[in-house]
C-alpha cells in the first residue's frame, strides 16, 4: 500500500510548506504571524517523530516512506530557512551551509546506495543532534519574541541555528570520511 497513515503524515510536512509561507502574507500583525508560523512548524516537525513511531508500531514501513521521510524533512527545513533569511532572522551563510550539506549528503547517500554501500553513510548521532538543533532553532526564530516572559527566542534561535550549522559541517565531514574507503575502493577498480 502506497499511502499508509505514516506516509500521509510525512506528506503533511510537504503540504505545510506553502501554508507556512502563506502565513507571512496574511493581513495579521507580525507577532500573530510569527506565533502561527512557529506553532505550525513545531506541529509539522513533530510529525517526523510520529510517522516513524506509527510506521514501526503499525508495521507500515515501506521503501516509499523511507524515501519520502527525509525528503519531507529537508523541504520543510530548507523552506523555513529561506523564510527566515527573507525575514532577516537567519544569516544567508547559515542557510547555505545547511541547505548545501543536505544536498551534498543526499547525493552521497544515493551514490552509496547505487554502490551497495548504504550502511557507510547511515544516519549517525551527529546528524540527529544537527536535526534536533535545527528543529528547535527554527520555531524559535519564527516566533522571534519573548517566550514565557523571559526566554528571548530570537537570541536562543540564533545560537541554536549556529550550533546546527557547526553540527551540519561536522556531520558532513563524518559522512564523507565514512564513505571515503568505499569511494577509494571503487576508484581503484
Give a summary of the structure in a few sentences:
This protein is mainly α and about 190 residues long.
Provide a descriptive summary of the structure in words:
The chain is mainly α and 189 residues long. The chain has one domain: Up-down Bundle (Four Helix Bundle (Hemerythrin (Met), subunit A)). 79% of the residues lie in helices and 2% in strands. The chain contains six helices and two strands, in the order αααααββα. The protein has helices at 5-23, 30-57, 63-86, 92-114, 125-143, 153-188; strands at residues 146-147, 151-152. Strands 1-2 form a two-stranded antiparallel sheet. It is globular. It starts with a helix and ends with a helix.
Helices and strands in order:
Layout: H1 5-23, H2 30-57, H3 63-86, H4 92-114, H5 125-143, E1 146-147, E2 151-152, H6 153-188
Antiparallel strand pairs: 1-2
Helix pairs in contact: 1-2, 1-3, 2-3, 2-5, 3-4, 3-5, 4-6, 5-6
Helix-strand pattern: HHHHHEEH
Instruction: Give the C-alpha Rg.
Output: 18 Å
**CATH fold assignment:** Four Helix Bundle (Hemerythrin (Met), subunit A)
What overall geometry do the principal axes of the alpha carbons give? globular
Low-pLDDT sequence parts = none
Distance between the termini: 40 Å
Structural class: mainly alpha
Helix content: over 70%
